Amino acid sequence: MTSKKTLIFQGEMASSSAHSRISNLQNHLSPLEANNKLRSLVKISPQVSEALSNGRAVVALESTIISHGMPYPQNLQTAKEVESIVRENGAVPATIAILNGVPCIGLSEEELERLASLGKSVQKTAGRDIAHVVATRGNGATTVSATLFFASMVGIQVFVTGGIGGVHRHANHTMDISSDLTALGRTPIAVISAGVKSILDIPKTLEYLETQEVYVAAYKSDEFPAFFTEKSGCKAPSRVNSPEECARVIGKCSLCLRISSFSKVFMHFDPLPP
């Protein structure tokens, strides 16, 4: 015979399970609430937090270029110069990294110094690696895909980087396709870069971006750039000719994203001449 206590316990378990399912459903129906929970898991610098609260421009910056792109102290100097350029143009820089397992959105001078001095001992962290680095309380330098994830989480709408990953040559045999491309396809952020790395298969990369519904434009050029060179031999899908036109395109894409899953923005600026 089933006891009264057992029935009560089973009823409580069913109630708890139902409450959990309802909570998960609410998170799907109310992504803002779920996103707020995620935001509580990251550390946002006071400057970035204030700028986001007041509707000021914030520019996300990746950190792999700092840890893996060049030696110390050149990497620290470059990181400071990039942040300074962002400030001089009226925005707040938000360099993103994981330190002691804590995702940091915007680094202090001490944190920037630490990341730069640790160099390649810091784990290069793509989107797939975030959970491991956080769980093991490690240090992670974010790639394009991980930076996009954290920037989107806190509401940053513009991300500036150097070159992104893409479809590697002979990918039809190796399936070597950068997670940067899928991250671009699912993240509603405007990414400003100098194109994909020149060693990649640029035509296939452009095809993949089209499949992911990513809007791609070159600035004052009809040709798609290749990171450190202005010419890749590939025509850019679209062209924009002024900062105002860039802003209008980003604004229209943001409006469409609020209505449905529409184009993400990916604009390429030609590399600076030597």
Automatic annotation (TrEMBL):
It comes from the Eukaryota. One of its GO terms (molecular function) is hydrolase activity, acting on glycosyl bonds. Keywords: Metal-binding. InterPro entries: PsuG. It comes from Arabidopsis suecica (Swedish thale-cress). One of its GO terms (cellular component) is cytoplasm. Pfam families: Indigoidine_A. Transmembrane segments: none annotated. This is Indigoidine synthase A-like.
